[in-house]
Amino acid sequence: MGNPSKDIPWLAIFDAYDIHNHDFDKEPFYITAKQIKTACQDFKKTAEKEVRILCYQAQKKDKPQVFNEKNLFLLPVKNGYYAIIKGQGYTDIPEINSEPILYDAKLDFPIESSLVGNSEMQHLDFAYATGMIEHFAGVGKLYLTIRGRKYTPEFSFRVRNTLVEQKSVQTEVDAGYEGKNHVILIEGKNVKMKDVIIRQLYYPYRKWSKDTTKQVLPLFFEKRGFEYMFWMYEFTDEYDYNSIRLVKSARYIMT
User: Taking the model in full, what pTM does it have?
Assistant: First the structure.
């Protein structure tokens, strides 16, 4: 299945620049935001011509049909520049079947303000304030040090045997924590996710691996009902986009 609002515009883009005949086994196809906008300028609906919307492919379900048919995915490689790449761009978020950890924060007073609303950031703030993130990470005391958008340094990586080079792409994590020997980066969601584009874990991982001397641990987090759910990943080869591996996972319920 594709994504109906993106299927026809992306077919128009592929037709306009003869992408159908590109040899993706040899190299990615690089395309600019300006080229995308030009190819889609005659469409009437915003969702069919807005570059930001067309290039949002955070989950497999967001991909247009032509990408599914050709086993392609999209990555930003510079502000206003994208690479269309052949290969597996996503990692599954597996169900956590282990029994939930009944967690007692042992706080001196109840935290109320973090329970108002339903955003990823507030759920992470609550998990941090109660010590839950430190408990799951298991690397000692952590301090909140990273939040918001940053730009990546220049780095290259492989997808299969294809070399991809990127520089100065805007990236962000929902929260980042530093300990004595580790940096913990968390991508958080407040809805159930079946999969996520690896880029959301890989780009911040590469940035902070380059900007610090400490071991960087990427985490994925979800708040589902009363449960706080964590997945810890690692990249066994920092230059290999697809070397992502699940280290451990757990779900917590506050008592």
Answer: 0.94
